[in-house]
Amino acid sequence: MIVHLIDGTYELFRHFYGLRRFAKGDALPFGAAVGVLNTVLEMIEDGATHLGVATDHVIESFRNRLWPGYKTGDGLEPALFRQFHPLEDALAAMGVVVWPMVELEADDGLASAARIAAADAHVHKVSIWTPDKDLAQCVEDERIVQVDRRTKEIRGAAGVRAKFGVDPERIPDFLALVGDAADGYPGLAGIGRVTAARLIGRYGALESFPPEVLGDQRDLALLFKELATLRTEAELFADVEQLRWCGPSGKFAAWTERFSSPRLLERSRRAAAGLERRLGQ
Known about the structure:
This protein has helices at 8-23, 31-45, 63-66, 78-81, 84-93, 106-118, 157-164, 171-178, 193-203, 211-214, 218-228, 252-258, 262-280, and strands at residues 2-7, 50-56, 97-101, 125-129, 144-148, 153-155. With 281 residues, it is α/β, with parallel strands linked by helices. It folds into two domains: 2-162 and 231-272, 5'-nuclease (Rossmann fold, 3-Layer(aba) Sandwich); 167-228, 5' to 3' exonuclease, C-terminal subdomain (DNA polymerase, domain 1, Orthogonal Bundle). A hairpin with a 4-residue loop joins strand 5 and strand 6 (153-155). It is globular and about 65 Å long.
């Protein structure tokens, strides 16, 4: 069994700005949400059976209390933000498990879900669908992998090492040193990717660095590491079978009507019927 974990926030952004380029600024009000639903449904049509989608129900999290420059919802376009909650409800109506994250972020939700799924002996692979470098810390050999939909690249532990120069478990240390502009923390002055990988390769975790290496930037580095470290303690589900897709609920028709996408309803019903036939064989 393969468990597919999807970054709903990333997918919504991807479709929103992709549609804007394609439609030259004249996108439909729920066009990005429809795009995400299509993407998830395509995965189901391609054979995915166990899925979960994590979203940032609110943009801010506990990390904003740790670092004032951490990313917020400021500057988020209203046309994009207005699609977050309808997307969550529509996915649930389509029969997909959704985790709208509040105190934690969507990335923490994906990390927590990966932990729970990987602990199940019936699961032979967990695929985390996001290019976000934070999630590279969750990769375990070829059992938990990261999938970049844009490049079609599937990264196991060897892929993470090739891309970043460090093992997956050292990604928080790496990001603490080089920073993460998307999340709003700068890293340490004078340390780039090559230097960061070399230092981590020599000393290991930041806590093991000799005092003179980071000097008076040590506390700042440890703070950035805390920002970069994903939380895995969210108990999002108890049994991986809760992630099995069984078809849309009766509420999905209203969402496809609201989104002016009747074909989504037809496809989801057809996919559910196909799944029922396969299970009956």
